[in-house]
Specification:
478 residues; two-stranded antiparallel sheet; 18 helices
């Protein structure tokens, strides 16, 4: 595995493995190792082939990952949601997509598809039945390996917590269509394409893989525009009476993101001069002490070593550049200034491409997507139809809701120290048992154990529930 990594990645992984027994330093390293971006050309996204079909020999994967119990309307709620006349006494909901749709880190009653289903029942006065085919790691349409979720004979169904590219979102829709209980669904909740773009490329600092925001834009162009329009068209044809709700993603990292709130001090250099930043960081010594100055010094020494061995071309390191060498605190603050760029680009471009794809499938007049990788999807100027088949669902975009922010709506990295688990998600202990029973590789087990990091927590699930109901109201009661 390491032989296929660039040298700087190998050094980084070595540093992380050494730091594992020091969980604070390890998790801090995962979050802050970002150097100022250097100019480089956009890397063309790899061509992905359509995911290999699920064969008859793998029929055990052609079932839902979760069949929720029927949800009954509670009394005392105003009936504000009027379903179409084509629906019956029970509203049937099917769910397709990746770990966001699955609800990584949340118990079943906390998952936003469950919460939205209960809200649908309460607002419509109808029973709601939900079958979810979503699972962690799912691709929208294109795959680069044919792995399936590890499966044990004792498993009643494929496990949504375990990463696998297949079944893809499109394949999940085919499976649901062939299921006698789901083929006549009234509502489809779906998402897709973040795993083609690369979730870690979006969330990790630049230094981890030298992925620029221009690279993110190119990958969204390749995987989230025409590909999403094709997926939506496919789902519309499979479920002729269903209202399709496409979930957009959220701002994973923002200027407010910080593992211990130092980012809030130095995130916006456009409003603060370097001296002011240094003074504010110095004033935050108590926060730094909470982490442990000894561990922070080790973090800086590790980053110094990695940067030196990676031969980065930076003005403060280039002989004869005339630039004043950056202090450790300067470099620390500059890392935070670039960490949020990829997340901002991903949200902006997917919002545009999903809006375009939805308009395209709804029959609105739209321009075709350009061939250039650096161009955003065309702006939609035509008005949507009165009763659209497809609706884009967006959650509030507040920097305070991002990773490590004051009111974060996503899970933090869980930290294990001896027998204590700090900042764990609600499924951590149960998931670790699954990771250990289904994976033999230590790295896969570790990756599996921290999988919900930066996924919606209970507050994030509430936000998705509210946005789903608001969007459904607009579609059904324009």
């Amino acid at each position: 595995m390491l032989s296929n990594l660039r040298a700087h990645q190998a050094y980084l992984l070595e540093a992380i493995s050494v730091a594992v027994w020091r969980p604070t330093a390890c998790c801090t390293l995962l979050l802050v190792l970002a150097a100022p971006a250097v100019a480089q050309s956009t890397t063309p996204p790899p061509d992905l082939t359509p995911c290999t079909p699920i064969s008859d020999n793998d029929a055990r994967y052609k079932v839902a990952t979760r069949n929720f119990p029927d949800l009954q309307p509670a009394s005392g709620y105003p009936r504000t949601l009027t379903p179409p006349s084509s629906s019956g006494s029970t509203l049937k909901v099917v769910v397709f997509g990746d770990s966001v749709m699955w609800g990584d880190g949340l118990t079943d009653p906390e998952k936003f598809v469950f919460l939205a289903g209960q809200a649908m029942a309460d607002a419509s006065g109808r029973t709601v039945h939900i079958d979810s085919f979503a699972h962690s790691g799912a691709r929208l349409a294109g795959c680069d390996n044919n792995d399936l979720v590890p499966y044990l004979s004792s498993d009643p169904a494929p496990i949504g917590d375990l990463d696998s590219q297949r079944p893809s979102t499109i394949q999940q829709s085919d499976i649901a269509h062939d299921n006698a209980n789901d083929g006549d669904a009234d509502i489809v909740l779906m998402d897709g394409c973040i795993n083609e773009v690369g979730a870690t490329k979006i969330a990790f600092p630049y230094f981890f893989d030298f992925v620029t925001k221009e690279d993110i834009a190119a990958r969204v162009h390749a995987y989230c525009g025409d590909k999403m329009a094709s997926a939506l068209s496919h789902v519309v044809q499979l479920f002729p009476k269903a209202t399709i709700l496409l979930m957009n993603y959220y701002r994973v990292v923002s200027s407010k993101s910080s593992p211990w709130n130092l980012a809030n001090v130095a995130a916006d250099s456009s409003r603060k001069d370097p001296e002011a930043i240094r003074k504010e960081i110095a004033a935050s010594a108590s926060k730094r002490d909470a982490l442990g100055q000894k561990e922070l010094d080790k973090l800086f020494r590790t980053t110094d070593k990695i940067e030196a061995k990676s031969n980065l071309s930076r003005p403060d390191l280039t002989p004869g550049s005339g630039a004043k060498p950056m202090t450790r605190e300067d470099r620390f603050s500059s890392r935070w200034q670039t960490w949020a760029d990829n997340s901002a680009m991903f949200l902006e471009r997917t919002q545009g491409c999903f809006t375009w794809a939805v308009a395209n499938v709804n029959g609105q007049k739209v321009d075709p997507i350009g061939a250039s990788l650096d161009t955003p999807c065309p702006t939609v100027t035509s008005a949507p139809p009165q009763n659209p088949r497809v609706v884009l669902v967006t959650v509030p975009d507040n920097p305070d809701y991002s990773y490590g922010a004051p009111q974060k709506h996503v899970w933090s990295v869980p930290v294990k120290f001896l027998w204590w688990i700090v900042r764990s998600d609600d499924m951590y202990r149960d998931r670790v048992k699954l990771c250990n029973s289904h994976f033999e590789n230590g790295m896969k087990r570790f990756s599996c154990s921290v999988n919900p990091t930066a996924h919606p927590n209970a507050s994030g699930a509430d936000a998705y529930r509210d946005s789903i109901i608001e969007s459904l109201n607009k579609a059904w009661n324009p």
